[in-house]
From TrEMBL:
Principal subcellular localisation of the protein: cytoplasm
Protein name in UniProt: Xylose isomerase
Subunit annotation: Homotetramer.
Residues engaged in binding Mg(2+) 1: 238, 274, 302, 345
UniProt-recorded Gene Ontology molecular function terms: magnesium ion binding; xylose isomerase activity
One GO cellular component term: cytoplasm
Cofactor note: Binds 2 magnesium ions per subunit.
């Protein structure tokens, strides 16, 4: 990728990636991800449902605010917009197929370059939707979810659905309509809303109540259109606290759930949670997963990680087995994701310029999730992990504690219980033991 390559030879030297097991030293093979291996009653491929991110993998140039692109793709110089888009899609489906990814995800402008002409953009996306439909039929790949990019164009500098200018909101609606149409035509299983600029930079010029009411109305309007036109999948909201705006209205899982509940959207929406977004909000990824799972809202995952020394969304490929093992404990106990999968919303580094780097990144991420799934299942099935947590709350399972949970005790009765029974016994939380337990099974 450091030099422009002939597209016909871009991935030709890369074999189909296969499972070879722990004894393999082949860097272009899976050591943990065996898609047919049954874990907790289901094959790995059903628990994990991996997807490739069209934007980072095939649009990410490696450019940053301080330097020009380092990943130079052959399709970028392939001719007009449709010719470039078809060349990119050919390469994308070849990559996804060789890697064995069952799904992919896209923003509208990832698939084909847009102009400022609404009708022309719709024609372009319709052309590429038909081309993608043919590619799906040829390869068996499926669309996990589609979405519209309502944050990159300068018209969206103050948001899309929350923009103070109705004209801008209407442009956002036009994009979402076209993206929903494409998602339906491709059999997309879900549709995502990420409010990259649905927020504010300063309250001095912001009517926050009106913006959130408009956002809710926008979501209802989009949802109603999709349902009228046959979409039966789940809508996802993806939380993020800030960046590019100072404060975004979809700050974290709890904030989004409260918003959906307030505006009567819970029945159609769940959450698409991203690792790096969780850490930017001051949470662990495990925390965000648990909040969503407890509310019955755990829909899908954008898999990546941040950098401990950088306070922004670096979108690196996941590599922390401890983080993912704890995350898979939450997912397993929740019964799995509801409708979604694990989308690698991650990009290779600016100085990773070989074609193989994109494969190494995905292989590592897929193997890591597979290892975490196996480890978490072993913890749940073979250790006293569950029993320790159950015992910690045992006082609420019988007697006065159970009566309190049933709502049968008054405040006066609680006072009398405290006075009668004296000072509570100090009971250990056993945190170090549990941390050692996770390490032992890893």
């Amino acid at each position: 990728m450091s030099t422009v390559l002939d597209q016909k030879t871009l991935f030709s030297a890369i074999p189909t990636i296969k499972f070879e097991g722990l004894e393999s030293d082949n860097p272009l093979a899976f050591r943990w991800y065996d898609e047919s291996r049954v874990v907790a009653g289901k094959p790995m491929k059903e628990w994990l449902r991996f997807a490739g991110a069209y934007w980072h993998s095939f649009n990410g140039s490696g450019a940053d605010p301080f330097g020009e692109p380092t990943h130079l793709f052959p399709w970028d110089a392939a001719g007009d917009a449709i010719t470039r888009a078809k060349a990119k899609m050919d390469a994308a489906f070849e990559f996804l197929t060789k890697l064995g990814l069952p799904y992919y995800c896209f923003h509208d402008v990832d698939v084909v370059d847009y102009t400022n002409d609404v009708a022309d953009n719709e024609r372009r996306l319709q052309t590429m939707t038909e081309y993608a439909r043919q590619k799906q039929q040829e390869t068996g790949l499926k669309l996990l979810w589609g979405t519209a990019n309502l944050f990159s164009h300068r018209r969206y500098m103050n948001g899309a659905a929350t923009n103070p200018d109705f004209h801008v909101l209407a442009h956002g609606a036009a994009q979402v309509k076209a993206a929903i149409d494409a998602t339906i035509a491709l059999g997309g299983e879900n549709y995502v809303f990420w409010g990259g600029r649905e927020g504010y930079m300063t309250l001095l010029n912001t009517n926050m109540q009106r913006e959130q009411e408009n956002f809710a109305r926008f979501l209802h309007t989009c949802k109603d259109y999709a349902r009228r036109n046959g979409f039966r999948g789940t809508f996802f909201i993806e939380p993020k606290p800030m960046e590019p705006t100072k404060h975004q209205y979809d700050y974290d899982a709890a904030t989004v759930i409260g918003f959906l509940r307030q505006y009567d959207l819970l029945g159609d929406f769940k959450l698409n949670l991203e690792v790096n977004h969780a850490t930017l909000a001051g949470h662990t990824f495990q925390h965000e997963l648990q909040v969503a799972a407890d509310a019955g809202m755990l829909g899908s995952i954008d898999a990546n990680r941040g950098d401990y020394q950088n306070g922004w969304d670096t979108d690196q490929f996941p590599n922390d087995i401890y983080e993912l093992t704890e995350s898979m404990l939450v997912i397993l106990e929740a019964g799995g994701l509801q409708g979604g999968g694990i989308n690698f919303d991650a990009k290779i580094r600016r100085n990773s310029t070989d074609v193989q780097d994109l494969f190494h990144a995905h292989i590592g991420g897929m193997d890591l999730f597979a290892r975490a799934l196996i480890t978490a299942d072993n913890v749940l099935q073979k250790s006293d992990y569950r029993q320790i947590r159950q015992q910690r709350y045992a006082s609420f399972d019988e007697g006065a504690g159970a009566a309190f949970r049933r709502g049968e005790l008054t405040l006066e009765q609680l006072r009398d219980y405290a006075a009668e029974h004296g000072e509570p016994q100090i009971i250990s939380g056993r945190q170090e033991y549990l941390e050692n337990l996770i390490n032992r099974y890893i």
